Amino acid sequence: MPPNPDSTAVMATYARFPLSFERGRGVWLQDSAGRWYLDCVAGIATCSLGHSNRRLGKALARQLGRLQHVSNLYRIPEQEELALWLTEHSCTDKVFFCNSGAEANEAAIKLARKYGHSRRQVERPVVLSARASFHGRTLAAVTATGQDKYHCGFEPLPEGFDYFTYNDIDSFNSTLASHGDRVVAVLIEPLQGEGGVVPGNPEFFRQLRQICDQRQILLILDEVQVGMGRSGSLWGYEQLGIEPDAITVAKGLGGGIPIGALAVKAKADVFEAGDHASTFGGNPFSCRAALTVAAELERRQLLRKVGERGEQLRAGLARRVAQHPELLAGVRGWGLIQGLLLRDGAATAGDVVKAAMAEGLLLVPAGPQVVRFVPPLVISQRELRQVFKRLDKALARLG
């Protein structure tokens, strides 16, 4: 019998659905009543290999039988192996490990300020980020998040942040000019997830890269949601044709086990001993999870499959847009992160999520008018057909 939600001792920081799951297998989850759901949430783009992946389970059982944690007082071979994999498979040279995307972005913000002080002698450095962005819930990360609704009630926010309109180079230049020479970094998502599944414009990012080079500004890409293959490329920046100075990674990196990372090029490698730390960050257990995900991405050729399944998902959603013009307005995204846009006044993303849940399909909003599809990267062609059948029934519920 599931616990009574009215008597739980858990703080009420989430508006939870009245649903709890007891087991999962691949892209499927079973609730406490025994009903199976097709999962297009994947722990919010986290369970890359799906639920209860056998190779991940075996690797973690073996690691747990050897060693789970020792702290960063000592060298950690699994951490060094993972850092090597990340740098060999990206444009970066060094890696700091932590436990989440918010922590990775906190590390990036500290790094940006250290860079400003030590490399450019800026006394009060400024970090620019985009409106409608999302970078995490810790105080600095939430300040970097360009959405007022996440700031309300937590003032005074840390100083040293300002915002520009995503994909708008004129807005960026105007915001940059207002701070003179104080801007030391730009923290930006290759694709805005919580902001409505909005892909970056390659021309905007090309100009942004050029300006950052000219002004000695660090370009830091928040790859927390799109990194580790979700876009169909290993990294979102590959979709944009540029290289950043640093990336932040989490979510899909550990396949459901908490791990995050800040990976930097040599020019941004300014941290020294004592500048930053994490008790649990990069411990043997979490690194073994990430190494297993990395190995499976390669062994199963998941980047190619994400591209194929992403095209299938996008095409299927586009057909539903054509079939329901009064309700649906469009589809956008990369690979296996796709957003279904709703017409203003027709329904909300929450309405669609609830209707889909009633049909055994799990979806997640990306703002009030966009429904996000982020299934495990291992979803099959047949399972995507099941997604569309259940989505059709959900849309029929909404008239």
Reading off the top of the CATH hierarchy, the class of the largest domain is best stated as Alpha Beta
- How many strands appear in the DSSP assignment? 17
Architecture of the largest domain, according to CATH?
3-Layer(aba) Sandwich
Strand content: 15-25%
**What's the N-to-C terminus distance?**
35 Å
Quick check: average pLDDT? 97
State the strand order across the main sheet.
4-12-11-10-7-5-6
The main pleated sheet reads as:
7 strands, mixed
Concise summary:
Helix content is 38%, strand content 18%. It has 399 residues and is an alpha/beta fold.
3D architecture notes:
It is a single chain. With 399 residues, the protein is α/β, with parallel strands linked by helices. It folds into 2 domains: 5-52 and 301-397, Aspartate Aminotransferase, domain 1; 55-299, Type I PLP-dependent aspartate aminotransferase-like (Major domain) (Aspartate Aminotransferase, domain 2, 3-Layer(aba) Sandwich). It is 38% helix and 18% strand. Strands 4-12-11-10-7-5-6 form a 7-stranded mixed beta sheet, sandwiched between helices. Strands 1-2-3-15 form a 4-stranded mixed beta sheet. Strands 13-14-17-16 form a 4-stranded antiparallel beta sheet, with helices on one face. Helix 2 (54-66) packs antiparallel against helix 10 and helix 3 runs parallel beside helix 10. The longest helix is centred in the C-terminal third of the chain and has 22 residues, at 302-323. The two termini are 35 Å apart. The relative contact order is 0.16. The mean pLDDT is 97.
